[in-house]
Please model this.
Amino acid sequence: MTLKCIVELDIVDVIHNHGKPMTLHELASYLKLHPSKVSVLYKFLRLLTHDGFFVKTKVKGKEGEEEETSYALTPPSKLLISGESTCVTPLVNGIFHPSSLDIWHSSKKWLTEDKDLTLYESATGETFSTFLTKILKYLVCFKGPWQLILMCLSLLSKIAAMCLKVWNLWLMWQVG
Model:
């Protein structure tokens, strides 16, 4: 959920557009956070730094001030930069969309009822495709993930084709 929070706040884009690492207070100021919430942002950044999404660096303060900790992007966080071909932000939004999460609150009901329904149907009373048709906003949310999935499938098919060529060469060498 912390990942969802940084996606919602566009923290990665803010740091990327800033062009250099940002301190906690610079980031909080840019995001226009309430001063009482800066400590929460610090906790998010600390957790995500531990998980490898950010890296701490030291920035020289103004003359006479001590160095400040700032946060820089890492390769995993760069996957969340908007507009990049490798951006997986739509996938994160899709995974953490409330309707994607709410269905899991109905898993016991679904597992114990004697009906031939999917988990989604049991939880919401409608099919997932009906839901997608009704909610155009949700379709936009899934645009990016489908492109990512198609890109992965394309890559897998190329790998499979190469493996098949290697297999055929090996067979010809064996028969030889």
About this structure: The first strand starts at residue 22 and ends at 23. The chain has eleven helices and three strands. The chain has two domains: 2-78, 89-175. The CA atoms of residues 26 and 32 lie 10 Å apart.
